[in-house]
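PROTOCOL LOG
Step 1. Enter all chains and additional molecules of the complex.
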Amino acid sequence: MIQQDMHEPDDWEKVLWKHHAYPDNYVPRRSFLASLQRNPNFRPYTYWPLVILSCSITQHLAVIFIFLPVFVRLKEHTLDPRSLVCISVLCFFLGYVFWNVFKIPEEATDRHVNHLKILKPSIMMFLALMSLSPVLRTLTAATSSDSIWALSAVLFILNALLADYTVTEVQGAHEGLSSVLSMNAAVSASVVLASRLTTDVSVFALMLFSIQSFALFPMLRRRLQSSSIALWLSVTIGLSILAVWLVSDLSRMVMWLYVAALLFITLIAPAVLIWAQRYKNIIRGPWDVAVPKVN
Amino acid sequence: MEPISIAMISDFFHPAVGGVENHIYMLSANLIKRGHKVIVITHSHAPDRVGIRWLLPSLKVYYIPFLPIASSATLPNFLTSLPYLRTIFLREHIHLIHAHASLSSIGHEGILHSHLMGIRTVFTDHSLFGFDDAASILTNKLMVGTLKNVDAVICVSHTGRENTVLRGQLFERSEERPDELELRKSVYVIPNSLVAEQFKPCVQPVTDTITIVFLSRLVYRKGIDLLVATAPKICALFPNVNFVVGGDGPKLIELLQMREKYLLQDRIEILGPIRHKDVLSVLSRGSIYMNTSLTESFGIAILEAACAGLYVVSTRVGGVPEILPEDMISFAKPEEGDVVRAISEAIHIVQNGKHDPIHAHERVKNFYNWEDVASRTEKVYDAVLKTPQMELMERIRRTMDLGPFAGPIYTIILLVDCVFFLFLEWWMPRESLHDVHHHWDPEVFKELMEEEERRKTTVH
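Step 2. Run joint prediction.
Step 3. Record the structure below.
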């Protein structure tokens, strides 16, 4: 950028207190902008690790697109709500087993104590949902269905945008605000959708399923991600295929759109990110605000 | 050089106080001493500081009725200041404007308008900015547009120049090798300065106690976190060391909490806000000055403390390493442990009598003075006035270089400004403006002063 002229007089110093013979607009060729750093800590991305990371977005979308067809089937009475309850309970226990298998080793000592502790709130949740379902069924009876579809669409988009897709599990710390908002958006969307259903048991089944998919699955997902890549990929592919299959019965066009979105997010978006990295230009220098290190 | 008429333009001027305000005032006063005519243009201050005021020594200040939005800066509105500035420039027969501070939008507007009247432009940048937060990105973009067409840029330190050059994109195609970019010739470094006579060291009685003075706004950027972390450790390490802390700001609470927590009420004295004229009396209470700024373009407070005979401990940030020789200052990294180390080093130096306040004062007096700054600035003005004025087409070409989005926007502003100027020429013709003939007359001022003295003596 600046032409480099390698002869520089030795008596020029980068100080202001000395009176030297050089004019004020003199530019020392060698030391000018010498402390400028471009892209420090630059770490070029590689394709396949990015694809693996983007799988968590793929999984999240797959869960949403499994949830929606399930709702439609419940609404059109092509799915028995009692079998959905059974599937949910089965998923819960399956997930719980996985959750324990991939536990961080140092926590493993007091495992047997925790099992009962976890079972109790689960049953409480189960009963609370059951008793609330008549209320939820008639919650938005006065609202037109069009508003409900629009509202739930907005809430699901919010959920997908705000969800926490990071790998590392924060130990002991509070969850980020955005991931809490994300979960709330999804549960609210399920509540308004559930209020379109006709029977109490189907409302209950849908709400139970929604808690599984949007509150418990993201927690499991983070743990799965830090376990083995093969399992992680097979879960991703399995969920995606299930979602595509469920959607394909409802509408061909939605299915193709969804497949396109999945392929874009999983395979094309990482490539775009790698391409865009060549435009990365971070400038660091002595003028930056220092970060104080305090113990 | 021939005496000329100069207009200093900045949002930051008296009655606000600060480094830029003081710089403009002192530079103007010294240029007046050298025979130039200087006026200052700034925005009005509530409740009644609007219109024209005179400051000693014969500095005329125009307070234009614009409302400041935040920390005394006005909203960037590009065109609305033209009627005011045109009238002032024409009436005062200004040859050159000197805008100060990159957050001062009225200064940028002055640079935008003045070419219409054939007036030359100089810009002084006083602060450092990063490149990666939203505020910096926006202000840098505004500044690039202005600096494309400015005749000369002055920075207050070498680090400041590197920063300004990158922020303002002050590169142009080299004449010999057209495919290469090189730095513009018109970027200067002229340091800030101080009035050494105002910071004379007081000779203190010899005691065992060493007082560390900390004097700054209590905000994050001044590194108050480091002070809060290190002060208890230093107090524990050295039982004969006390602190005096002056200044106000949001971090005052943390300081008070720290003092309470470690029961240091008798070791750390917190003075609260300090007026500029009381700075010396606070400085003269101590023998070590501590500065923990996280960014600093020049660090005038450090210089004032060194001039008042204090040994300085500072974080090595921005332009601070340039302002004093290594034997008058101890540097620390902005880390808790290293600050403690540097302070301990300073305490040993002061305890063993290796730092002579009177000698330090004499040295600083030699390093910096305003006469020198004024004559160096005058050279910049001279160089600017000797170069030919840029043509409008050249301005448009340079402005279009700004980029595919910003370029056309700034060009439109430039052209609309020209049309607005033509409209004003028709609406308020130059011939109808009253030129300023009455200038400051030192004789009249002297007479008035004498009269006042006589009146006082007769009353008594």
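Step 4. Note key features.
The longest strand of chain A covers residues 37-38.
The first helix of chain A runs from residue 47 to 75.
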